Amino acid sequence: MTKISKPLTTTEVKSYKPQSKMYKKPDGKGLWLLIKPNGTKSWRYDFRYGGKNLSISFSIYPEIGLKKAS
């Protein structure tokens, strides 16, 4: 059973700090915010195509904010 996460808030997105390893925070339905050790935050979308799990990175935060990314 797939766990559906609650949508991120702008306050949460702004508050995430870099750590020694990159980590991701789900927004639900395949959208993720990836936080890298250098502080870069990027939007990623996970999806299935042709029987394979794929992921695409489509922008950097805050260039594209949470509202547009969703």
List the helices and strands and how they pair.
Layout lengths: L9 H6 L7 E6 L2 E5 L5 E9 L2 E10 L4 H4 L1
Antiparallel strand pairs: 1-2, 2-3, 3-4
Description of the molecule:
The protein has helices at residues 10-15, 66-69, and strands at residues 23-28, 31-35, 41-49, 52-61. The chain has one domain (10-69): Double Stranded RNA Binding Domain (2-Layer Sandwich), CATH 3.30.160.390. The model has no long low-confidence stretch (mean pLDDT 91). A hairpin with a 5-residue loop joins strand 2 (31-35) and strand 3 (41-49). The protein is mainly β and 70 residues long. 14% of the residues lie in helices and 43% in strands. A four-stranded antiparallel beta sheet has the order 1-2-3-4, with no helix packed on it. It contains two helices and four strands, in the order αββββα.
Strand order of the largest sheet: 1-2-3-4
Structure summary, number of beta strands: 4
Total domains, how many? 1
Class from helix and strand fractions: mainly beta
Question: How would a crystallographer describe the biggest sheet?
Answer: 4 strands, antiparallel
Q: The CATH topology is what?
A: Double Stranded RNA Binding Domain
Shape: globular
Number of helices: 2
Q: Could you estimate the helical fraction of the residues in percent?
A: 10-25%
The CATH homologous superfamily corresponds to Integrase, DNA-binding domain
End-to-end C-alpha gap: 23 Å
Q: Strand-and-helix sequence, N→C?
A: HEEEEH
Query: What would the average pLDDT be, to the nearest integer?
Result: 91
List low-confidence stretches: none
Rg on CA atoms, Å: 12 Å
| CATH-level-2 architecture | 2-Layer Sandwich
CATH class: Alpha Beta
Our estimate of the beta-strand percent is 35-45%
